[in-house]
Amino acid sequence: MNKGSVLESPTPHGEVTKTVFLYTTEDSGIDRYSQELARHLPVSVLRTKRYKLGLRGYSLVRKLSSLNKLVHFPSPHFGRYSIFGSSPFLLTVHDLERMCFPFARESVWERVGLKLDALAIKRASHIITVSENTKHDLIKLLGVPEKEITVIYNGVNHSIFHPNGFSPSSLRYILYVGSERPRKNLRRLLLAFAELKKTGQFPELKLVKVGSAGRSASFRQATLKTLKELNLEDEVIFVEGLSDQELARYYSSATMLVYPSLYEGFGLPVLEAMASGCPVITSNVSSLPEVAGEAALFVDPCNDNDLCKAMARLLSDDFLRGQLVAKGLSQSKQFSWERSARETIEVYRSVGESSPALAQPKPQMYSSYKGSVACLTGRPSSAICHEQQQTAIVGESPLRCSSKVKGQEPRVF
Question: Is the pLDDT of residue 384 over 70?
Fold first, then answer.
Protein backbone atom coordinates (compact mmCIF):
# COMPACT_ATOMS: atom_id res chain seq x y z
CA MET A 1 0.00 0.00 0.00
CA ASN A 2 1.30 3.48 -0.77
CA LYS A 3 2.76 5.47 2.08
CA GLY A 4 0.11 7.25 4.10
CA SER A 5 -2.76 4.96 3.04
CA VAL A 6 -4.82 3.41 5.84
CA LEU A 7 -7.48 0.73 5.41
CA GLU A 8 -10.37 1.07 7.85
CA SER A 9 -13.06 -1.45 8.71
CA PRO A 10 -16.71 -0.79 7.84
CA THR A 11 -18.91 1.29 10.09
CA PRO A 12 -20.52 -0.35 13.15
CA HIS A 13 -23.60 -1.02 11.00
CA GLY A 14 -21.62 -3.71 9.16
CA GLU A 15 -20.50 -4.12 5.58
CA VAL A 16 -23.52 -4.37 3.29
CA THR A 17 -21.53 -4.96 0.10
CA LYS A 18 -18.10 -6.30 -0.67
CA THR A 19 -16.70 -2.90 -1.59
CA VAL A 20 -13.82 -0.65 -0.65
CA PHE A 21 -14.21 3.12 -0.98
CA LEU A 22 -11.31 5.59 -1.19
CA TYR A 23 -11.28 8.56 1.22
CA THR A 24 -9.03 11.31 -0.15
CA THR A 25 -7.24 13.52 2.32
CA GLU A 26 -6.85 16.78 0.39
CA ASP A 27 -9.15 19.79 0.70
CA SER A 28 -11.36 20.50 -2.31
CA GLY A 29 -14.93 19.89 -3.43
CA ILE A 30 -13.91 16.50 -4.82
CA ASP A 31 -12.32 15.57 -1.50
CA ARG A 32 -15.37 16.75 0.42
CA TYR A 33 -17.38 14.29 -1.67
CA SER A 34 -15.19 11.36 -0.63
CA GLN A 35 -14.94 12.44 2.99
CA GLU A 36 -18.68 12.94 3.48
CA LEU A 37 -19.63 9.72 1.70
CA ALA A 38 -17.07 7.76 3.75
CA ARG A 39 -18.91 8.82 6.91
CA HIS A 40 -22.15 7.27 5.67
CA LEU A 41 -21.16 4.23 3.61
CA PRO A 42 -21.17 0.86 5.44
CA VAL A 43 -18.15 -0.43 3.50
CA SER A 44 -14.41 -0.65 3.99
CA VAL A 45 -12.68 2.71 3.58
CA LEU A 46 -9.13 3.38 2.45
CA ARG A 47 -7.61 6.75 3.31
CA THR A 48 -5.12 7.99 0.72
CA LYS A 49 -3.82 11.04 -1.09
CA ARG A 50 -5.39 11.93 -4.42
CA TYR A 51 -3.12 14.56 -5.95
CA LYS A 52 0.34 13.78 -7.36
CA LEU A 53 0.39 10.16 -6.30
CA GLY A 54 2.93 9.29 -8.98
CA LEU A 55 4.28 5.74 -8.88
CA ARG A 56 2.71 5.20 -5.45
CA GLY A 57 -0.63 5.01 -7.21
CA TYR A 58 0.31 1.71 -8.82
CA SER A 59 1.27 0.11 -5.49
CA LEU A 60 -2.06 1.35 -4.14
CA VAL A 61 -3.92 -0.42 -6.97
CA ARG A 62 -1.96 -3.63 -6.39
CA LYS A 63 -3.00 -3.59 -2.74
CA LEU A 64 -6.62 -2.97 -3.70
CA SER A 65 -6.51 -5.90 -6.13
CA SER A 66 -5.38 -8.20 -3.32
CA LEU A 67 -8.51 -7.37 -1.31
CA ASN A 68 -10.78 -9.08 -3.86
CA LYS A 69 -13.43 -6.37 -3.56
CA LEU A 70 -15.24 -3.98 -5.82
CA VAL A 71 -13.29 -0.69 -5.67
CA HIS A 72 -14.94 2.72 -5.78
CA PHE A 73 -12.56 5.46 -6.90
CA PRO A 74 -14.09 8.83 -5.91
CA SER A 75 -12.59 10.83 -8.77
CA PRO A 76 -11.03 10.37 -12.23
CA HIS A 77 -7.62 11.26 -10.72
CA PHE A 78 -7.31 7.53 -9.98
CA GLY A 79 -8.23 6.46 -13.49
CA ARG A 80 -4.64 6.27 -14.71
CA TYR A 81 -3.91 3.72 -11.98
CA SER A 82 -7.18 1.81 -11.87
CA ILE A 83 -6.82 0.21 -15.30
CA PHE A 84 -3.68 -1.59 -14.14
CA GLY A 85 -5.48 -3.39 -11.31
CA SER A 86 -7.42 -6.64 -11.51
CA SER A 87 -10.40 -5.58 -9.40
CA PRO A 88 -13.67 -4.41 -10.95
CA PHE A 89 -14.05 -0.71 -10.20
CA LEU A 90 -16.53 2.12 -10.11
CA LEU A 91 -15.47 5.66 -10.92
CA THR A 92 -17.13 8.90 -9.87
CA VAL A 93 -16.70 11.52 -12.58
CA HIS A 94 -17.40 15.01 -11.29
CA ASP A 95 -16.81 16.86 -14.54
CA LEU A 96 -14.80 16.85 -17.77
CA GLU A 97 -13.02 20.10 -16.97
CA ARG A 98 -9.68 19.04 -18.39
CA MET A 99 -11.26 18.29 -21.76
CA CYS A 100 -13.06 21.61 -21.86
CA PHE A 101 -10.38 23.76 -20.22
CA PRO A 102 -6.99 22.14 -20.85
CA PHE A 103 -4.03 23.79 -19.17
CA ALA A 104 -1.92 26.01 -21.42
CA ARG A 105 1.18 24.05 -20.42
CA GLU A 106 1.03 20.33 -19.71
CA SER A 107 3.87 17.90 -19.14
CA VAL A 108 4.17 14.68 -21.12
CA TRP A 109 3.14 12.79 -17.97
CA GLU A 110 0.00 14.92 -17.63
CA ARG A 111 -0.99 14.30 -21.24
CA VAL A 112 -0.45 10.56 -20.94
CA GLY A 113 -2.23 10.50 -17.58
CA LEU A 114 -5.28 12.25 -19.00
CA LYS A 115 -5.52 9.73 -21.82
CA LEU A 116 -5.33 6.90 -19.30
CA ASP A 117 -8.01 8.61 -17.19
CA ALA A 118 -10.30 8.74 -20.23
CA LEU A 119 -9.62 5.08 -20.95
CA ALA A 120 -10.46 4.20 -17.35
CA ILE A 121 -13.82 5.95 -17.68
CA LYS A 122 -14.63 3.72 -20.63
CA ARG A 123 -13.44 0.56 -18.89
CA ALA A 124 -15.06 1.10 -15.49
CA SER A 125 -17.76 -1.37 -14.41
CA HIS A 126 -20.03 1.60 -13.85
CA ILE A 127 -19.80 5.39 -13.69
CA ILE A 128 -21.35 7.63 -11.05
CA THR A 129 -21.73 11.31 -11.92
CA VAL A 130 -22.86 14.17 -9.73
CA SER A 131 -25.10 15.90 -12.29
CA GLU A 132 -27.09 15.30 -15.44
CA ASN A 133 -24.79 17.83 -17.10
CA THR A 134 -21.73 15.65 -16.50
CA LYS A 135 -23.64 12.58 -17.63
CA HIS A 136 -24.46 14.40 -20.87
CA ASP A 137 -20.80 15.35 -21.32
CA LEU A 138 -19.68 11.74 -20.82
CA ILE A 139 -22.09 10.50 -23.46
CA LYS A 140 -21.31 13.27 -25.93
CA LEU A 141 -17.56 13.63 -25.49
CA LEU A 142 -16.42 10.12 -24.57
CA GLY A 143 -19.18 7.95 -25.97
CA VAL A 144 -20.00 6.29 -22.65
CA PRO A 145 -23.30 4.34 -22.95
CA GLU A 146 -26.09 5.96 -20.97
CA LYS A 147 -26.96 2.68 -19.24
CA GLU A 148 -23.48 2.62 -17.66
CA ILE A 149 -23.97 5.97 -15.90
CA THR A 150 -25.91 6.74 -12.72
CA VAL A 151 -26.45 10.32 -11.53
CA ILE A 152 -26.16 10.73 -7.76
CA TYR A 153 -26.15 14.32 -6.58
CA ASN A 154 -23.76 15.62 -3.96
CA GLY A 155 -25.14 16.42 -0.54
CA VAL A 156 -24.67 19.08 2.08
CA ASN A 157 -24.08 18.74 5.81
CA HIS A 158 -27.13 20.49 7.24
CA SER A 159 -25.75 20.29 10.78
CA ILE A 160 -23.01 22.72 9.68
CA PHE A 161 -24.50 24.67 6.79
CA HIS A 162 -27.62 26.32 8.14
CA PRO A 163 -28.71 29.90 8.90
CA ASN A 164 -26.53 31.33 11.64
CA GLY A 165 -26.95 34.73 13.22
CA PHE A 166 -23.25 35.06 14.06
CA SER A 167 -21.33 37.29 11.65
CA PRO A 168 -17.55 37.11 11.22
CA SER A 169 -17.55 40.79 10.22
CA SER A 170 -19.60 43.94 10.56
CA LEU A 171 -19.06 44.64 6.85
CA ARG A 172 -21.73 44.35 4.22
CA TYR A 173 -20.21 42.07 1.63
CA ILE A 174 -20.74 40.00 -1.48
CA LEU A 175 -19.22 36.53 -1.15
CA TYR A 176 -17.33 34.47 -3.72
CA VAL A 177 -16.11 30.98 -2.78
CA GLY A 178 -13.69 29.17 -5.04
CA SER A 179 -10.33 29.27 -6.75
CA GLU A 180 -9.06 31.82 -9.25
CA ARG A 181 -8.77 29.46 -12.20
CA PRO A 182 -10.06 31.10 -15.40
CA ARG A 183 -13.11 28.84 -15.73
CA LYS A 184 -14.28 30.08 -12.32
CA ASN A 185 -14.72 33.47 -14.00
CA LEU A 186 -13.56 35.60 -11.09
CA ARG A 187 -12.28 38.26 -13.47
CA ARG A 188 -15.79 38.72 -14.82
CA LEU A 189 -17.10 39.14 -11.29
CA LEU A 190 -14.44 41.75 -10.56
CA LEU A 191 -15.38 43.70 -13.70
CA ALA A 192 -19.04 43.66 -12.66
CA PHE A 193 -18.19 44.59 -9.07
CA ALA A 194 -16.12 47.56 -10.30
CA GLU A 195 -19.11 48.81 -12.30
CA LEU A 196 -21.32 48.37 -9.27
CA LYS A 197 -18.97 50.44 -7.11
CA LYS A 198 -18.85 53.19 -9.73
CA THR A 199 -22.56 53.85 -9.23
CA GLY A 200 -21.80 55.27 -5.79
CA GLN A 201 -24.85 53.55 -4.31
CA PHE A 202 -22.88 51.06 -2.23
CA PRO A 203 -19.78 52.82 -0.89
CA GLU A 204 -19.26 50.46 2.08
CA LEU A 205 -19.82 47.25 0.15
CA LYS A 206 -16.90 44.81 -0.08
CA LEU A 207 -16.23 41.62 -2.00
CA VAL A 208 -14.94 38.73 0.12
CA LYS A 209 -13.08 36.04 -1.82
CA VAL A 210 -12.77 32.73 0.10
CA GLY A 211 -10.37 30.00 -0.98
CA SER A 212 -6.88 29.56 -2.37
CA ALA A 213 -5.83 30.78 -5.81
CA GLY A 214 -5.55 27.26 -7.19
CA ARG A 215 -2.97 25.20 -9.02
CA SER A 216 -0.76 28.03 -10.29
CA ALA A 217 0.69 31.15 -8.70
CA SER A 218 -0.12 32.87 -11.99
CA PHE A 219 -3.82 32.78 -11.05
CA ARG A 220 -3.28 35.04 -8.03
CA GLN A 221 -0.94 37.26 -10.03
CA ALA A 222 -3.63 37.72 -12.66
CA THR A 223 -6.22 38.50 -9.97
CA LEU A 224 -4.01 41.11 -8.31
CA LYS A 225 -3.29 42.68 -11.70
CA THR A 226 -7.01 42.95 -12.38
CA LEU A 227 -7.64 44.53 -8.97
CA LYS A 228 -5.02 47.15 -9.72
CA GLU A 229 -6.43 47.87 -13.17
CA LEU A 230 -9.91 48.32 -11.74
CA ASN A 231 -8.80 50.26 -8.65
CA LEU A 232 -10.31 47.60 -6.37
CA GLU A 233 -7.29 46.88 -4.22
CA ASP A 234 -9.03 48.18 -1.09
CA GLU A 235 -12.42 46.71 -1.96
CA VAL A 236 -11.64 42.97 -2.10
CA ILE A 237 -10.77 40.86 0.94
CA PHE A 238 -9.00 37.49 0.58
CA VAL A 239 -9.74 34.77 3.14
CA GLU A 240 -8.19 31.29 3.25
CA GLY A 241 -7.94 28.31 5.57
CA LEU A 242 -11.48 28.37 6.93
CA SER A 243 -13.04 25.43 8.71
CA ASP A 244 -16.47 24.32 7.51
CA GLN A 245 -18.04 25.97 10.54
CA GLU A 246 -16.32 29.27 9.76
CA LEU A 247 -17.26 29.04 6.10
CA ALA A 248 -20.89 28.49 7.07
CA ARG A 249 -20.82 31.75 9.04
CA TYR A 250 -19.46 33.63 6.04
CA TYR A 251 -22.30 32.27 3.92
CA SER A 252 -24.91 33.03 6.53
CA SER A 253 -23.93 36.66 7.02
CA ALA A 254 -23.16 37.53 3.37
CA THR A 255 -25.48 39.77 1.40
CA MET A 256 -25.28 37.20 -1.38
CA LEU A 257 -23.08 34.54 -2.94
CA VAL A 258 -22.06 35.28 -6.52
CA TYR A 259 -20.84 32.22 -8.40
CA PRO A 260 -20.38 33.07 -12.11
CA SER A 261 -18.50 29.92 -13.16
CA LEU A 262 -18.26 29.02 -16.84
CA TYR A 263 -18.32 25.29 -16.19
CA GLU A 264 -19.07 23.09 -13.19
CA GLY A 265 -19.73 19.43 -12.60
CA PHE A 266 -21.93 20.30 -9.62
CA GLY A 267 -21.26 23.56 -7.74
CA LEU A 268 -21.05 22.86 -4.00
CA PRO A 269 -20.76 26.55 -2.97
CA VAL A 270 -24.20 27.21 -4.45
CA LEU A 271 -25.74 24.39 -2.40
CA GLU A 272 -23.87 25.32 0.78
CA ALA A 273 -24.94 28.96 0.44
CA MET A 274 -28.60 28.07 -0.03
CA ALA A 275 -28.50 25.75 3.00
CA SER A 276 -26.95 28.61 5.02
CA GLY A 277 -29.70 31.07 4.16
CA CYS A 278 -27.59 33.06 1.69
CA PRO A 279 -29.23 34.27 -1.55
CA VAL A 280 -27.42 33.18 -4.71
CA ILE A 281 -26.56 34.65 -8.09
CA THR A 282 -25.05 32.07 -10.42
CA SER A 283 -24.49 31.15 -14.06
CA ASN A 284 -27.22 29.84 -16.32
CA VAL A 285 -24.92 27.15 -17.74
CA SER A 286 -23.59 23.65 -17.06
CA SER A 287 -24.79 21.98 -13.84
CA LEU A 288 -25.64 25.14 -11.91
CA PRO A 289 -29.33 25.37 -12.89
CA GLU A 290 -29.72 21.74 -11.77
CA VAL A 291 -28.37 22.52 -8.31
CA ALA A 292 -30.10 25.86 -7.76
CA GLY A 293 -33.46 24.99 -9.32
CA GLU A 294 -35.71 28.03 -9.03
CA ALA A 295 -33.89 29.35 -5.96
CA ALA A 296 -31.30 31.65 -7.56
CA LEU A 297 -30.92 34.58 -9.92
CA PHE A 298 -29.31 33.28 -13.11
CA VAL A 299 -27.03 35.35 -15.32
CA ASP A 300 -25.07 34.96 -18.53
CA PRO A 301 -21.56 34.35 -17.11
CA CYS A 302 -19.94 36.12 -20.06
CA ASN A 303 -21.89 39.35 -19.61
CA ASP A 304 -20.53 41.54 -16.82
CA ASN A 305 -23.32 44.09 -17.34
CA ASP A 306 -25.90 41.35 -16.72
CA LEU A 307 -24.02 40.33 -13.58
CA CYS A 308 -23.74 43.93 -12.34
CA LYS A 309 -27.49 44.50 -12.76
CA ALA A 310 -28.32 41.29 -10.90
CA MET A 311 -26.12 42.27 -7.93
CA ALA A 312 -27.60 45.78 -7.82
CA ARG A 313 -31.11 44.36 -7.94
CA LEU A 314 -30.50 41.95 -5.09
CA LEU A 315 -28.79 44.63 -2.99
CA SER A 316 -31.77 46.96 -3.41
CA ASP A 317 -34.69 44.55 -3.10
CA ASP A 318 -35.13 43.07 0.38
CA PHE A 319 -38.31 41.26 -0.67
CA LEU A 320 -36.47 39.47 -3.47
CA ARG A 321 -33.65 38.56 -1.08
CA GLY A 322 -36.18 37.08 1.34
CA GLN A 323 -37.78 35.07 -1.45
CA LEU A 324 -34.44 33.65 -2.57
CA VAL A 325 -33.45 32.77 0.99
CA ALA A 326 -36.72 30.86 1.52
CA LYS A 327 -36.52 29.12 -1.85
CA GLY A 328 -32.85 28.29 -1.28
CA LEU A 329 -33.50 26.68 2.09
CA SER A 330 -36.28 24.59 0.55
CA GLN A 331 -34.16 23.60 -2.45
CA SER A 332 -31.18 22.63 -0.29
CA LYS A 333 -33.31 20.16 1.68
CA GLN A 334 -33.50 17.97 -1.42
CA PHE A 335 -29.77 17.26 -1.04
CA SER A 336 -28.11 15.28 1.74
CA TRP A 337 -25.07 13.04 2.06
CA GLU A 338 -27.29 10.38 3.62
CA ARG A 339 -29.34 10.26 0.43
CA SER A 340 -26.17 10.22 -1.69
CA ALA A 341 -24.86 7.27 0.34
CA ARG A 342 -28.12 5.30 0.04
CA GLU A 343 -28.15 5.71 -3.73
CA THR A 344 -24.45 4.81 -3.94
CA ILE A 345 -25.04 1.58 -2.03
CA GLU A 346 -27.73 0.64 -4.54
CA VAL A 347 -25.16 1.01 -7.32
CA TYR A 348 -22.73 -1.19 -5.36
CA ARG A 349 -25.39 -3.88 -5.04
CA SER A 350 -26.32 -3.67 -8.70
CA VAL A 351 -22.72 -3.94 -9.87
CA GLY A 352 -21.90 -6.59 -7.27
CA GLU A 353 -24.69 -8.82 -8.50
CA SER A 354 -23.04 -8.90 -11.91
CA SER A 355 -19.50 -9.30 -10.53
CA PRO A 356 -18.90 -12.76 -12.08
CA ALA A 357 -19.18 -11.13 -15.48
CA LEU A 358 -16.58 -8.62 -14.39
CA ALA A 359 -13.85 -11.18 -13.77
CA GLN A 360 -12.38 -10.38 -17.17
CA PRO A 361 -11.41 -6.76 -17.88
CA LYS A 362 -13.71 -4.88 -20.20
CA PRO A 363 -12.31 -4.57 -23.73
CA GLN A 364 -10.60 -1.33 -24.52
CA MET A 365 -13.09 0.93 -26.20
CA TYR A 366 -11.64 3.88 -28.02
CA SER A 367 -14.06 6.58 -28.97
CA SER A 368 -13.12 9.79 -30.69
CA TYR A 369 -14.88 13.07 -30.49
CA LYS A 370 -13.68 15.07 -33.46
CA GLY A 371 -14.40 18.61 -34.42
CA SER A 372 -15.15 21.55 -32.19
CA VAL A 373 -15.68 20.94 -28.50
CA ALA A 374 -18.20 23.26 -26.92
CA CYS A 375 -17.17 23.54 -23.30
CA LEU A 376 -20.72 24.24 -22.23
CA THR A 377 -21.95 21.06 -23.86
CA GLY A 378 -25.55 20.35 -24.57
CA ARG A 379 -26.66 23.85 -23.68
CA PRO A 380 -28.50 26.40 -25.84
CA SER A 381 -26.40 28.91 -27.71
CA SER A 382 -27.38 31.59 -25.21
CA ALA A 383 -25.32 29.69 -22.64
CA ILE A 384 -22.12 30.37 -24.58
CA CYS A 385 -20.36 33.71 -24.37
CA HIS A 386 -21.42 36.08 -27.12
CA GLU A 387 -18.26 38.11 -27.34
CA GLN A 388 -15.47 37.16 -29.72
CA GLN A 389 -12.94 35.86 -27.25
CA GLN A 390 -12.29 35.90 -23.54
CA THR A 391 -9.01 37.34 -22.31
CA ALA A 392 -6.37 34.65 -21.87
CA ILE A 393 -4.81 34.03 -18.49
CA VAL A 394 -1.50 32.20 -18.31
CA GLY A 395 -1.77 28.72 -16.84
CA GLU A 396 -5.08 27.54 -18.26
CA SER A 397 -6.67 27.96 -21.68
CA PRO A 398 -9.93 29.90 -21.44
CA LEU A 399 -13.17 29.26 -23.27
CA ARG A 400 -13.54 30.77 -26.71
CA CYS A 401 -16.98 31.99 -27.49
CA SER A 402 -16.82 30.36 -30.92
CA SER A 403 -17.03 27.06 -28.97
CA LYS A 404 -13.39 26.07 -29.42
CA VAL A 405 -10.70 26.14 -26.81
CA LYS A 406 -8.21 28.89 -27.43
CA GLY A 407 -5.06 27.89 -29.24
CA GLN A 408 -5.77 24.17 -29.13
CA GLU A 409 -7.58 21.54 -31.12
CA PRO A 410 -10.09 19.50 -29.14
CA ARG A 411 -8.68 16.50 -27.33
CA VAL A 412 -9.16 13.15 -29.04
CA PHE A 413 -9.18 10.16 -26.69
Answer: no
